[in-house]
Structures are given as C-alpha cells and as structure tokens.
Structures
1.
Amino acid sequence: MKGKMTGSSIANSRMAARALTAIVGGYAAAAGSVSLLARIAPIDRAEATIWAMTLSFLVYAGLLLWAFHETRLARVAATIWGLAFGSAACLWLLGPAL
Amino acid sequence: MRLEPALLSYAALACLALSSHRLRRDVAVGRLPTVATLRAFAVALLVLAAWRAIHAFGPYQGPVAFIGMVSMAGLPLVLLLSRWPRGALVTGLAAAAMALGTLIPA
Amino acid sequence: MSKAALNDAPGVRQSMAWIHGWLGLLAGWILFAMFLTGTASYFRPEITRWMQPEIDLRPVTAATAADTAVAHLQKVAPTAEQWFISLPDARTTATRIFIRERPNPDPNAKPAPRRPELRLAPATGEEVTARDTRGGEHFYRFHFQLQIPHPWGRWLAGLCAMAMLTAIISGVITHKRIFVDFFTLRWSKGQRSWLDAHNASAVIALPFHAMITYTGLITLVAMYMPWPIQANYKDPATFETAVFGAEPDAEASGRLAALTPVAPLIARASKEWGGGTPATMVVRNPNDAAATVTLFQNSRDRLNARGGSIVFSGVDGRQLSTSPPPGPAAETSGVMLGLHTGSFAGPVLRWTYFLLGLAGTAMVGTGLMLWTVKRKRPNAVPFFGIGLAERLNVGAIACLPAGMAAFLLANRLLPATLQSRGDTEVSIMFWTWFGLAALACLRPIRRAWTETLAVAAVAFLALPLVNAFTTDRGLFRSFVHGDWLFVAFDLAMLATGALLGFAAWRAAQISSRPARSRRAAARPANPLREAVDAP
C-alpha cells in the first residue's frame, strides 16, 4: 500500500491501474458473478434475480476492499478481471436468456 | 407511551457509560454500583426497551424502532457526558424512572 | 499513520485505514450533501406544505378523495387514455392527478402537449393553485440526482454510496477500539476532538449508517445492477410481470360504457389488504367498455415499501387480477426500500430517522474535518491538496446549509406570480451555496469558517421572521391555532440556526486564539501528555 504514497510516476500509474481494476473491474466482476449465480441458482428465476441484485453491492464492496488491500497488483488484476471475463464467458456459453 | 423505548435505552446506555473506567473516575460519586451490576442493569433495561418497542410498534416496526431509538438515545448522552459527566447519572436515573413510571399502571 | 505504517508490513488495519481515509475524503463532500438533503427529505411532504402556505387542506378518507378526483376528471378529460390519481394521506393532504391523452390517430398531427400534474382539494375535487415551487421534492431529488443531468447524477450518487459502504466496512475493520471508546467526547483538543466526534457519531448510529447506505443503493438497483435481469430474461418486462403482476391490456374497445363507482372498489381492496389503503389509482380507458381500475397499496404501517396491486374492471367492478404475493427476495428488497425511505414511520420514528440522518451528516462532516486537521499538524507529512480540501470543507459543511436556507427564504420573498418561480428558487440555492463558497476563498481559512457559518446561522434564524411577515402563518399564530406543522418547522429552523451559530462561535474562539490552538495542535507530539490523557 504504502509505496504508492511516494508520488513517483511508476507508483502513480500502478495506483491508477489498481483504482481502475478496483472500481471498473470490481463492478464488472460483481455484476458478472451475481448474474451467473442468478442464472444457475436452482430457485425461482425472478427470486434468484432479485437476490443477485440485492447482494451484488456486498460482492462489489468486498472486491473493492480486497483490491486495495492486496499488495500484489498482478494478482489483483488477474483475479478481478478473470472473475469478470470468466463469468461473462460462462453466461455466454449458457446461451441467450429466455 | 411511544418514547418509552428511547428513555429505557438512554438509561441502559448511561449504565454502560458509567461502567467505563474513565467515567467512573470523572463522576466521582461514592458507592457507585459495581461494573458488573451496571452491565446487568444495562442488559435488563435494553431487554425492557426491546419489549416496549415491539409492544408499541408491532413485530415488524418494533425491531426497527428499538435499534433506531438505542442509537438516537446515544447522541444526547455522549454530548452530555462530554460537558457534565455526573449528568449521565442524574438523567439516566430520571429517564429510567419516567419510563418505569409509565409502565407500572399498565 | 504515515511514518509508523511505512515501516510495518501492510497489515489489514493499515490498508483499511488508508482506504477509509481516501475514499472518505474523495466522496465525502458529495456524501455530506447527500446525507444532509436526504435527511431533510424525511419531511418531504411537510416541506412542500410549508413552501405553499396558501394551501391548508384537511385530510379526508381515500374513498372520498377518489370520488372527488374522478368527478373532476370526468369533467375535464372523460376520454383520456389514462388517469393517474395519487390519493392523499395525512401528510400530503392534496390529491394529485395526471392525465395521459389518447394519441392522435393521425400520424402527421403534432403530439398533444404533455399535461402538467394538477393538485386537487380532496374534499371538493377543486383544483388548488398556489405559488410555483419544487418544495421538498427538490431536496429529495437532489440527494440522489445531485442536480446533474440524467443519468450521470444518479451514477455519481451511486459511486459515492459505494464509497460510503466501503468506508463503513473499512472503518469498522480499522478501528475495533471505537466500540469500547465511543462514549468519549473531549472538547477543545484539536485533532483528538474531531476523532472523538467522528467515532461517536459513527458508532452510535452505525446500524443506521450501514442500513441507509446499503438500502440507498437498493433504491436504484435496477439502474445500477440490471445485469442479473439481462442474464435471466430476454425481455425485462417478463421480469417485471413476474414480480409486480401483469399490467392490464391497454387497448380501448371504442364502445362507450359508464365507469363504475370507485369507492366500493377501494373498500374491497382495503378488505383484501387487511385494512391497508390505496396510495395510487390508475384508470385506463375511462368510460370505455374495456376500462380498468388499478389500485396500488400504500406503504404506511408496512416495512415493505412495495405494496400489492389489484386490477378491477372499470365497467362492472369485477376483480380481474392481483399482483403475486412477494417471495422472500422480493420481500427483502421491498423492506430495504421501505427502511430507506421510512415511508412506514409515524411521527416518533420519523423524528428518530431525522436525528439519525443528522448523525450520519455529522459523521461525514467530522470525518472531513479530521482529515484536514490531521494533515495540518506541525509534524504531519505535508500534502499539497490540503488547502483545496479545507476550502471544499467550508463549501460543503457551512455553505450548503446557507444555500438550503436561501432556498426556503426565496420561497417566501420571491413574488408569487414570478415566471418559472420554482426554478428560480432552486437557482438561488445553488448561487448562494457556490457563491458563498467562492467568496469564502478570499478570506483566511479560520475567518472563512466563522463567517460562512454565521451567514448560514443568520439565514436560518431569519426564516421564522420572514415567514411571520410574509404569510399569516407565523410562529405565534400557528401556535394559537394549533398548526403544529408550521410551529415545528419554525422551531426546527430556529434550532438549526442556533446550532450553526454555536458552530460559528466555536470557530471564532479558535481563530481568535491562534497561539493557544497551535500549542494544542502540537500536543500529540509530546508522548508524555498523550499517555497521561488529562481528564
């Protein structure tokens, strides 16, 4: 964490990458994962959809906090963007919605 | 009375505050109940407040009212403690007396 | 945390403290405005009623209000496509109607201008006219749209709410000790005092802060997080139907048929809802053989803000369909919505909500103050943005209340017949807010605090006076007539003015004793004094 407060340009660009991953990637990962859950949960479709929407912000908040806590930026980026694209790919493989 | 839970919560929080080390020193009243007694009082008053909240606001709004009123009661208490620590004792007793007073005829 | 933290391995508490500080700061100014205007919105209909003092209506039953509204609509728009009727309750007092005209069958004809929403006296069905104002609706809209064009205001508000949520979680993780120490509030000790105040306001009302932040996100969840719907439904309307019930068929038959009386429908709906009352009535294709009447339940006395709805035939009053009973998830999200808006709350709980909202505002405000005070300590790591942060603090904490008071003052002082009067009131709020904040930049920071807080205090204290001179509902008369809304409003303004005046006085005390305050600020550098912790 603390290295980013030195103000050098490398630290700044790493911070920017981290913030982008956390805020945009975290949103995408939260949206993708809860959408996937809503799709595959074995309960009523409308109910699953509402649960997913209701809990999505908790997932997003958790991802945001972890993205700034974990020191290894590569790991943060891989996990969050992996979750985002992975869940999107799964949804795509499941085919269009009814 | 609908404000009963707030008064009981206030008294409960005052008990909790009086069980803290710093405040016991500031209040400097001889023969203050022990920390364990005060905590037991606080728990009893909070249970009473929860019961009165559910009684007054029903099973659904009751818990909301209880949590809200415990929080709300803390605000004046903290302000009072910062200026007049002994006031916590006085107003806490007064709040408990008022709330219990409305309970007895009921 | 700066130096010590640099040497440590970045533990959870350090990283959480870092996140808490920065997210809190960056979102803090907007969050302060959202909290303050949102708190005022708990009295949205009351503010509107105060801002239209010429209207003084007595509440009637929902059935009477519906009857008079329908009678009015039969006179002015018997062949409209839809009538929307918002039935009054004890707080809103007026019936609101909105007419949707049938589109002209000729495709080349100009579309009919959109009719404005009208308000009716519920007892008589007569139109009520009053000064043009946005009323409490303005604060309500601002607190999640931020006066920024759609959809950007709502997105920005959502982003700030997410920052708030993460700040709450990271704050709790960082400062476990606050749960022991939250009764402590020490005055006149610089940074220590701001920290105490921040802790106390945060911890005491923590359930409220967490609830209001999360449920705030839920109020706009369909916009912020529509992806689960997209993943599950080809057509979002299918989802809406599954959750809220089917909309009745909108096609008119073209055959005339008298509209059934609505009062019996309300009685039947009320029976079905176990005594609940309708909030809204929608009449589709009135006076047509295919007419329907939909009643939506109001959310008073229920935590779930999403009430059920019943569709009746508009010709013979048969019950055509009912919204499905909510499942656990729908119930949960409806309750979250209700918890946020507090629509169920009676007077006692409403004031509780209001005070807890103020505690939330204080938490954000003291957090912002703490951030700058911490970085102005003599031994603190210098930070180039500190001056900007201080000016923004003045702009948010002192100048926004001044702007809100100016909005209310403008309501009393602008001529009643002024063109686009409601918009002018809103402009005056923003000109006052940002103008005062800009002017304050010309003053040294200590003086800026004193002066802007004093301006805000005077503006609030002036409100009851101006109200007494410009209306016949001044404090004394209201008191004599038992007009408790106006009494409470004036008293609330006086209390707000007094609070701001007290703040201005404190700020003046600090600025008139620069030497002492510098010594006080330097105190944390002395470890002995810190450890002794004088009473």
2.
Amino acid sequence: MKTAALTQPILIVTALVTLALFALFSGLDPVLLAVSIIIAAQPLLLAALGEMVVEKSGVLNLGVEGMMIIGAICGFAAAVETGSPALGFLAGATGGAALALIFGLLTQYLLSNQVATGLALTLFGLGLAALIGQSYAGIKPPPFPKLDLPGLSDIPVIGPLFFSHDAMVYIALALVIGVWLFLGRSRPGLILRAVGENHDAAHSLGYNVILIRLAAIAFGGALAGLGGAYLSLVRVPQWNEGMTAGAGWIALAIVVFGAWRPWRVMLGAYLFGGVTILQLNLQAANLTPLWLLAFGFFLFAIWRTLTSRRPLELLGLWLATVLTAAIAAKYPISIQSQYLSMTPYLVTIIVLVVMSADRLAANLNAPASLGRVFHKTG
Amino acid sequence: MRFLTTLLGAAALALGTTAFADGHEPTKVGFIYVGPVGDFGWSYEHDQGRLAIEEAFGDKVETTYLESVPEGPDAERAIRQLAASGHDLIFTTSFGYMNPTLKVAEQFPDVKFEHATGFKRADNVSTYSGRFYEGRTVLGHIAGHMTETNTIGYIASFPIPEVVRGINSAYLAAKEVNPDVEFKIVWVSTWFDPAKEADAANALIEQGADVIMQHTDSPAAMTIAEEKGIYAFGQASDMKQFGPNARLSSIIDNWGPYYIARTQAVMDGTWESMDTWDGIAPGMTEIGEFSDKIPAEVRASAQAIADAIAAGEMHSFTGPVNKQDGSVWLAEGETADDGTLLGMNFYVEGIEGELPN
Amino acid sequence: MLILEPRATTPRWLTVLTPVMAVIATMIAGGILFAILGKNPVEAIRIIFLDPLLDPYSRTEILVKAAPLILIAIGLSLGFRAGVWNIGAEGQFILGALAGGATGLAFYPVEGIWLLPLMTVAGALGGFLWAMIPAILKIRFGANEILVSLMLVYVAILLLSALVSGPLRDPDGFNFPESRQFHNAASLPILIEGSRVHAGVLVALGAVIAAYVILQRHMLGFRIKLTGQAPRAARFAGVSQNVIIAICLGISGALAGMAGLFEASGPVGQLVPALPAGYGFTAIIVAFLGRLHPVGILLAGLVMALTYIGGETAQLMLRIPSAAISVFQGMLLFFLLAVDVLTGFRLRWVGRTSA
C-alpha cells in the first residue's frame, strides 16, 4: 500500500522533470514555460474549484461558461471604471454569483431541470455579457501588478516560480486549501457533503437543504466569475465577445477528472493548462506532436508500473512509449493544426476513462444526489 | 406600419427597382458581418467602410448591417432578408458567404452583390479583396530589421492560400534584410480566440521570438507583446491602443474607398460585375503609421518598398525564389502570377517546418 | 405561507397555459430590455413574434430552422427520460454531416435516386457511431457520458475543419476550406418552390410521430421511462441498464447525424467548417421546453425557430444588437423553465387551519 500513496507524487515529479528536460532540450526556459502554464491554468482552476463545491452539494450547474463570461465582463468593466483590478475581481465574483443565483432560484425553488437550466444560463450569460461589453471592446484594462518581494522574487528559478506571480495565483491556492479544509475538516463542510449525498436524510436531520445549496451555487458562481475576470484582466488581458471560448466546459470536465477532490482538481487544471500551452510550444519549436503522445504513454506506463501487477500490460505500455518516441525522433511528421488542437479534449476523455475505470477513486467521491431535484414533500 | 413598408418594398422590388437611380430615393446599402462590429479587427474595418459610405453620401444613402452572422445555414437567410427588404447593394464580407450570396443573387437579379475574398462571380455578383501580402512585405522588411534574436513569431489561423501567402511574403522580405532570420509559426485553427492567441504569443516569446506577426483577428497578441516588452504589428485594424510601445506598424484593411466607389456606381447605374484585388496603390491595403521605435533609415526603406509596390515597380514575389523543397518556383526576375498566388499551398525555401496541409 | 404541492395529474388547460404565461412574461421583460436599449418595445416584440408568421418566406424559414432542432431533440428526449445525458448531439450532428456528405462527394457526379437514401443511412450511421463512443465508455468504464459526449463535440468541430481543408476539400476551390457543392442527386429535394423547405422537414415530422408511438405504445418506451423514473424497479423488471444506455445514445446519435446530413445537403449544399450552428445544444433546451414529450418538442422547436428568425429581423429593422437577442432568448428559456413547476406542482397557501 505504500507505493499507492506515493503514486501521485512520483507521477507529478516525473512529469515535471520530463517537462523541464524537454524545455531545456528544445531551447526553452523551463521556468518561463512553467509560468505560462500557471497563468493558463488559473481561470480553469478557479471555475472548476467552484463547480466542485456546487456538485458536492448535489447540484449540477452546467452554466459555468455563462458565469465565467459574465465574470469576465463585470470584472473588466469595474476595473476600467474604477482603475482598480482588485475591485474588478470583486465585481467579477459578484457578477458570477448573481447569475448563479438565477440558476439557484430556478432549480431550487422552482424545481426546474438542472441540465436545461444550466444550458440556458450559458446562453443567457453569453448574450448578456456581449450586451454589457459593447462599449468595452478595444480598451486596455489597468495592469494587475505581480508580486515583487525584494530578495525572494529575485532568487533565480525559485523566485519567478514561486514568488513573483500576481495576487490571484496565491488567492487561488488559498482557495484550494480553504475548500479542502472546509469540505474535509469542518462541520459546515460535512453538512454540505451530507446534503449532496442524500438530501432527504439531510432534510430530516433538520438541515435547510435549499439554503445550503443556494450558498454553494453562489460560491460556485463567484469562483467562476473570478476565473472569467482572470481571463479578461490578466491572461489576455482585454474584453472580447465570447472570449471564454469553451473554458467553462473544460472546467466541468476537470471536476470529474479531479474526482471531486480539491488537490486533484488543481492538478487537473494545471494538466489542462499544460497540454494547451505545450501543444503551442511544440509547434513553435517545430517538433512533431507525436512527442506529446510519447509523453502520455510514458506517464501512463509509470503509473501502471507503480500500481499494476500485470507484466504483459506493462510490457505493452513501455513498448508503446519507446516506439512512439522512436517514431517521433525518426519521422518528425507534421499534421494539420486542427488535430493538434484536439489534444486537450482527447486527453480529458482518456483521463476520464482511466479515472472512471479506477472505480474506487472516482465513484466513492461522486455526490450521490448529483443533479437530482429536491422537494420537501417529494 | 413597418409591415406595410416591407410589403411596399417588396412590391417596389417586384416592379423592378429603378427609382433609386435618379437620386430621389436613398440608395440602400446592406452589410453582412461575420463577427461583432466591435471585434477591432476584420468586421470592425468593414463597418468603418460602411460609415465611410454614410459620411460620403449623407442623406442619399441608407445603410444597414447584420452582425455576427455565422457562415453556416443561417447566412443565406440573412442575405436574403437584406435583399428582400429593398437593398440595392449588399456587401457580404466573409469568405463563407460565397455560395449563399450566389444563391440569393440568383433570386434577386436586380440587386447588386459584392462578396469579399471569394472567387465565384455572377452578373450581379462582384468579388473584391485586398492584396494584403503586399503589406506583409513591408512589415516583414521592418521585422527583419528589428529582431535582435533573429526569431520572428507568426501566429497563423488556417493554412489557406491567403495566410500562406502572407507568411511567404513576410519571410522573403525579412530574409532579404536579415539572412539569419528564422520564422517560428504556430497554427491556432481559429480566426478569433483571444485566449488562444495570447497563449500562442507567449509560446512564441518563450521560444525566443522578439517580433510577433499575426494572421488572426484579435488584438490579444499585441497586448501580450506590450506586456512582455517586444514588438508586434496590427492586423486588419491599427491596434495601436493595445500596444502603444509594442506596435511597430500595421496592415489596415481600408475598405472605405472601394465601398464608396461601388455605391456611386450603383447610383449612377454603371455598376458592373467585376473582380477587384487591390493592394497598396489604391489604398485597400493600408500600411499603418511607422512607430518611432523603428530607426529612421529603416522607416525610409520600408516606405520606399511600399512606394515601389504601389508604383508597380516591385512585386512581393520576385525571383529567384525556390519552394521549400528546393525546386525552382520563380526564376531570376520573374514575378508570381495571380493564379499561383490565389492557390498558394507551399512554403518558400528557408521556412522551417511542414505546412500543415 | 405559500408552498408547492405535487399534483397527481396535470390538467390539460394548464399544460397549454403555462408556456403562454412564459411567453407573455418574456415579452414584458424583453420589452423592458429593449426600452432600456432605446428601442420601441412594442414594435420589437411584434417583429420578433408576429412578423415572421405573417411573411410567407419567413414561415418557410421557421420550418427549415425548426426541423433539425426537432429531429435532434426527439432523439435526446428518449435518453433524457432514461437518465442518459447526451450533451454532445452537436458532435453527432457534425459526424452525420461528414459521413453522409463524404458519401455524396464520393459518388460525385453520379446521378441516381439511390444516392440520397444511401447518404442518409451513412449520416445516421456516422452520428450513431460517434454516440457509441460515450456509450461504450460509459458501459465499459463508467465514464461520465455528459463530459465524454461534450468533449467529442470539440473534437468533431476540429475534425470537420481538418477534413474540409484536407481530403474533402473542393479540388477547384483554390484550397479554401470547404467541400465542393453537392451535385443534384446528392441534394435534398425542395418541398416548397422558392423556399428552402427540404425533405428533412418531413423526416422530422415522422420522427415526432414515431417517438410518440414508441413512448405510448411500445415496450421500449415503457422500459426507457421506467429506467429514468425507477432504476431499481427497472432492474428487477429485467431491463438492462447498459442496453438502455446504448439504445438511447444510439438513437439520439443517429437522429442528430441525420439532421446534420440534411442540413449539409439541404440548406447549406456543401460541407463547410461553420456547418454546426449550435443546433445540438439548442436542441437540448428544446427537448426540455417540450417537456420531453414529442408533441411538446414539435411546438418548442417551432417557437425557438420563431425567435431566431424574428430576432434576425429585429436586428435588421431596429438595429437591436444580436447580443440583445441572445439575452431575450435566454429570458424566454428561464421563464419557460420557471413556469414549468406549475404543471408538476400546485401552489397552495397554507394557513393556520389547514395543516
């Protein structure tokens, strides 16, 4: 059982070392690459973390995309009007939460179907954001300062990796820790999970299921709004119609990928950000995308080596790794860019399958009442 | 009331619209945009052209537009709506509108249509586009001078001839002034996705690019360039507000003069179906103001190139030029013919990487 | 206080009245929105809801727009009833268009009345197979079908883009990313002269009837409903959960695939990267608006199409930004979903005397 506990750290370290080697080998600065991945991951991390809490309470809100884009425009508009990015983030969170409460009202009080309402929320959010944003296209937002600790931020490698990000990166990390402590260690967190597991039982124990769920929905909306504001204030930074471009949907996938665990959700967000950035970097470095496949096989092989006892499977995986790497080295074929752009989605599917196949990990943690309508007398 | 006017409009149409030719009735000009008018790129510039018409003709014209019309099944209906509501001249401003435009044009023989960037025409359908590659020759020249790492990053959308042409012309011009220059190209499979374009710009910068060129429509890359303290060029519109320090120059799609001329032709009754592919000379491809960051002598040489192209003394693709595989494309002194340019699907010699085709 | 009480049966008049209430509420809220934007609210509402019905061409366009929505929503509704969440109809739509369209292009320029049926089968098969990916992953590994089918939408969009700029590209098209136009035998026949109403509209209507029969009269319909409402009971009754998953995803995939092919060989006439116009997603909403009932879906699809056509007209005539139209549609959905509660529950005032 000892190896099982070590599996995740070993995998992460291996992945990081391989990435750093890849970066050095292709003339990249691994630190810069890591910083890019961190920035790309933040919107996903925030939105996914929020949605995870919502789902833990037994509610499936598919409107993440809509809440994110509302957060993006509210945050952008507030930052431009007040000149303060901090107020912008606050407004983004508020906007996201407000939109989420429409969903909460409909699904919790009026008992509408969560899937349909979530989709309608996305449609509505995209339209409303575009409408609000009409006078904000083509404006530069006030810059969001990066942390600059004299001494610490100047240390080579360590400094840029850990001590010179913008405040939101640290806030997001604090939120991950907070959610982790809240869900796992606190009484309100326990109640929230109880509501998600069995709302009828929670109700008969005297908990106000609807109020708890509304709070979770608002929190999820606020975090999605923050993620959106991060897009429009830091990552891009500008306002454009439809600028979330599917990030909300990916956040939903990350929740499942993360098996409803905060740290895994964070890992998922970084993995996704990583794949997105890497496929662009591979192109820029003129390397064949086959390397990405080889890398995937490699990690998979290591994982199975640590957990599986079936020699034939292991042999196959390692063979696949070596073979793909050999092909990549010998025939650096280029393929249509569209196929490259598919990689993040395909990786999600593969990871989803792997996670789900590992039933113990995923299913034990999935909230049992997810998506089911709660009605007191029902 | 509105319904009645629509009916009347339809009736007038049925009787044949000649009333506008004598100038008593305002000429109605309609536009179909693929993006929102506030995209600060492609659709924005077309809308600037529409506003130029209004400014030029005042009360004599009435303009309308439909924005964010997807190029799929809805395009035909949108175009038809404009045709059916009494428009005399309709500009459909994206490649994907080509076949829908032709279909509607067949049903409304008295309405004039203008389709941007396409290649199919009819008696009442003209096509027009800009020789943007001429602009890219000028930008490539500047980029070649300005890069210190000898690495130019290029964010590309789809490997269609228009984009490949742009890469080749920019590369040839940069190579001319800087033999060590290297192009790093990232294909993002989208015309407009600010987050992805920003990521691509970051990836290119990490790979050592200190000048970014782009053939996608959002100003995201410009914003990133400003933040990272490197150089970039405006695309489709000037984009100066996104990168006051980063922006070196820009290619501006200036549709105004063409739109005014075509509207005038409809008013005069002299409109004829034709194909227009205009470059720097008539002003459809406009080179944005040069930044002070560019040394004076480079500004002068860039201007000289622009002038020479405009005067017809120089062509962006002048031999000797080899294809990427080393085979000869243009012999010494030979210039590329439009047919090859329109279907260009190869890199010129020196560009690394395979064209994802 | 006001409480919600479940109804044993839903009176018929209420089923009709609730959507009407929602539409009226949307008109009021939308009117306020348009007034804020400085447009005449009455005129705007009239243009969106009434004008398309008065204009003959717009009437035909409503049919063109509604047909794929209805066809897809019918398929999805079966799955939704069984608790199988296929969110990826958009992807199945694309694969149907690709498979059927490629078949049509492969036989260019062969004429023959057998070609269209062949393309339709290929299209249905394409959508079916694409839907089988989440089905198999769900059955074999328990992977969440919502996310797998959704991720496959993005893959499908990119695949379409790759294929029309690669193998399926028009050989005479200057390398532009689109296929050649379908020749005569590969194009859907037009039902109403001068319009775009194509044979696919009839198929959509047929699907409504077929779904009605299956749900009301057929054992399969019963099993689907049972699985959704009482999974345990269904298991005891010998209904295999896995078979239901495969059937529901398969049918919805096949119908979405057919809708995709009809859209390609009908109104569009070729394969283009912009072919998917969001039908797959809108159809999910249509399915719910129609309360997963075939007749309801038929009506919901028509209303949805009406707001699209009317919205375009309003954009043109009143210069209402397209974003405002999306907001307006979003409102309509919210109101429809909100009043839906009244069909399942009754509002009751609980005073002191009544417990």
